[in-house]
Design a protein that fits this description.
Length: about 300
């Protein structure tokens, strides 16, 4: 698989919460950060979102905002409105005046992911992906938005199931959209896949993670000098090439350890270590615990849920 497919398959995202969010009049709410991917699809009207210390963003009908990991943020009807603290809820939310037709309506919520590798979202993906209605119109993404909006407004049998499946498809499509040219503010995997030379190196790593890659070998695949490739990779992806390789190997190992289906020798061989001992040393150095202890600890923690969306 390609790098993006690999990561999506490893994280196994699914729509955990999808709920109506509406508002009328003047209103503003503020939410704390939580480590779950969040999304908002505006169905009607407009509102403003302030993510951390970023400039406020106006969101309007048809706009889609995806937050691979959700920082503290404020949502409000118009600039200058005081924002009150609010707690994430799993059910429909109504802001401002409680009576009358809302002048803002959206579908919002969060995706659940395999929490053991949730850190990948912080290190490999951008902080936010915003696709305005004007950009998505006439594209496959736009058609998916139309389908989702139609399903939200209707009352067909199986509505909740269809919404969940459409949202899961929309998550991947939004990430692919970013690969296709959405502006990005920082180094990340999507930027790497956007760069043809870096993409060739990234695909080589994912196609054969067992290989003991060197920077020189990856530079050759990218058709660049060793020093030029190393500098470019770090600038675009956000880490050194061998660091990326190690992060990906450890992510695969974590998943294998939790499944309990493979021995340490097999896991070590699958991800390119000479022996179980070499793998255990590398794993312990990076995570501060042995593979066995890691597996036992996370097995004991299994069953914990992800925070709800705003």
């Amino acid at each position: 698989m390609d790098p993006l497919s690999d990561i999506v398959a490893l994280l196994r995202p699914r729509a955990a919460i999808a709920k109506p969010i509406s508002g009328r009049g003047r209103w503003g709410v503020r939410y704390r950060a939580y480590d779950a991917p969040g999304f908002t699809l505006v169905l009607t009207g407009e509102a403003w979102v302030a993510l951390g210390d970023r400039e406020p963003l106006r969101i309007a009908e048809g706009d889609f905002l995806l937050l691979p990991t959700t920082p503290a943020f404020s949502l409000y009807s118009e600039p200058g409105v005081p924002c009150i603290p609010a707690e994430p809820l799993a059910e429909a939310v109504r802001h401002g005046e409680q009576e009358g037709e809302p002048d803002f309506a959206a579908l919002g919520g969060s995706f659940s992911i395999e929490s053991v590798n949730a850190q990948l979202l912080l290190t490999l993906l951008p902080g936010a992906i915003f696709i305005p209605a004007s950009a998505g119109r006439g594209t496959r993404f736009g058609r998916m938005i139309d389908l989702l909006s139609e399903e939200c407004m209707a009352d067909h049998p199986g509505k909740e199931l269809v919404i969940q499946r459409l949202l899961e498809m929309l998550l991947v499509e939004a990430l692919r959209w970013d690969v296709g040219g959405n502006s990005a503010e920082s180094a990340n995997l999507l930027n790497g896949l956007r760069d043809p030379a870096m993409a060739r190196a990234l695909r080589a790593i994912h196609e054969d993670v067992r290989t003991r890659w060197t920077v020189a070998e990856l530079a050759g695949i990218a058709s660049m000098s060793r020093s030029g490739f190393a500098a470019r990779f770090n600038e675009v992806v956000g880490c050194a090439p061998i660091e990326y390789l190690v992060r990906w190997r450890i992510a695969i190992a974590k998943q294998a350890l939790l499944s309990g289906a493979k021995s340490l020798d097999r896991i070590a061989d699958d991800i390119g270590y000479e022996s179980a001992s070499a793998f255990s040393t590398a794993f312990s150095k990076r995570l501060g615990c042995s593979p066995g202890r890691f597996a036992r600890r996370h097995a004991a923690d299994a069953g914990g849920g992800m925070p709800a969306a705003s």
